[in-house]
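Q: What residues go here?
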């Protein structure tokens, strides 16, 4: 057996962990660029805590809060330009997947000149700015991965910068920043984390290490689902702090999983749903995941059985029904769109990462089953 396990990010976990560990910022430099979105980091208190920590240890900062949902190539080049022009020493990314994805690309581009046509090449100099990551949603796990997912309009899809250079240096996990998340966001991000854990178990790079983390993540998310469903049926029921913590920790573990295994056809197929139909990334994964389980089950039922057992489910149909309950009414996708999306997905590296490799006709069938 030949395995590789690499997770270089130092992680601090717990309430007020940023303020309590503020001294670690001093090891990264004297000037930071805070990368975030326009609103949420200000509302949930995460940006305020970061600024208080920086002020108390004498570190200056700038704020780049122009990151949009599904960040573009233009956005990260703009952020990198600001970082270079202001001689920034390190990056602090606050938010969900979008600011964290953008922060990694900015850290890379601020340290070296990379032409747009080479951005996704995987060939880079050994130079990058240090990064501090504060997730404010429980889904992406980007605080412990080496991936930066950006919208590539030329390719009409989302594409990944993948290099160990962009593992964050430090991550802070404080569930209080997720307490005010809307229910829809909570569901979509939880399903995203679940997808990461499940897909990690369906990757050719899966190992006993990644499977152990994946199963624990799946169990933690599954234990939270009844409370999410209660809130879905009755909006007056608030998701409690303990559940928020469990979702954040499950997302963190699932992030470690895909850092080792990568993702599968589910992500490849979901990217088109996000790019063309503006379907949230986690929701797109959740819509497709059940049919992919059925596809793999035909050739590898033992793998699927292990996943279902972690969820206390007896069949893939039960899994699909659960996703339907969480995600609600599905969008409309035409036959021509399905054909186009399948073509795009087949060109990705995710397809070859599957333990059972689908052909284009398999992708078409999965899309058709999901969207009737």
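A:
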């Amino acid at each position: 057996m030949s395995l590789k396990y690499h997770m270089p990010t130092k992680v601090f976990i717990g309430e007020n962990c940023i303020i309590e560990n503020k001294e670690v910022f001093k090891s990264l430099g004297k000037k930071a660029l805070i990368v975030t979105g326009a609103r949420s980091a200000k509302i949930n208190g995460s940006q305020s805590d970061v600024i208080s920590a920086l002020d108390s240890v004498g570190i200056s900062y700038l704020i780049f809060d122009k990151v949009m949902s599904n960040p573009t190539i233009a956005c990260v080049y703009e952020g990198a330009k600001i970082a270079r022009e202001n001689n920034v020493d390190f990056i602090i990314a606050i938010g969900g997947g979008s600011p964290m994805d953008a922060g990694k690309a900015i850290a890379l581009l601020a340290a070296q000149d990379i032409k747009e046509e080479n951005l996704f090449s995987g060939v880079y100099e050994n130079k990058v700015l240090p990064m501090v990551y504060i997730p404010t949603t429980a889904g992406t796990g980007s605080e412990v991965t080496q991936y930066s997912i950006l919208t590539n309009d030329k390719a009409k899809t989302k594409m990944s910068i993948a290099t160990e250079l962009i593992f964050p240096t430090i991550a802070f996990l404080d569930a209080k920043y997720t307490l005010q998340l809307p229910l829809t966001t909570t569901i979509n991000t939880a399903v995203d984390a679940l997808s990461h854990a499940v897909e990690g178990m369906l990757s050719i790079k899966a190992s006993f290490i990644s499977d152990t983390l994946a199963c624990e993540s799946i169990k933690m998310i599954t234990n939270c689902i009844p409370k999410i469903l209660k809130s879905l049926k009755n909006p007056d029921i608030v998701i409690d702090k303990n559940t928020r913590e469990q979702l954040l920790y499950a997302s963190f573990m699932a992030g470690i999983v895909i850092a080792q295994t990568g993702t599968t056809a589910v992500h490849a197929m979901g990217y088109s749903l996000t790019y063309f139909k503006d379907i949230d990334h986690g929701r797109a994964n959740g819509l497709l995941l059940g049919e992919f389980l059925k596809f793999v089950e035909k050739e590898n039922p033992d793998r699927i059985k292990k996943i279902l057992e972690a969820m206390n489910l007896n069949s893939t149909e039960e899994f699909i029904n659960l996703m339907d309950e969480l995600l609600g009414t599905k969008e409309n996708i035409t036959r021509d769109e399905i054909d186009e999306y399948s073509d795009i997905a087949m060109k990705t590296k995710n397809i070859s990462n599957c333990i059972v490799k689908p052909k284009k006709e398999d992708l078409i069938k999965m899309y058709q089953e999901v969207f009737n």
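A: Context that may help when evaluating the design: The beta strands are 10-13, 31-35, 60-64, 90-95, 131-135, 147-152, 157-162, 170-173. DSSP finds 14 helices and eight strands in the chain.
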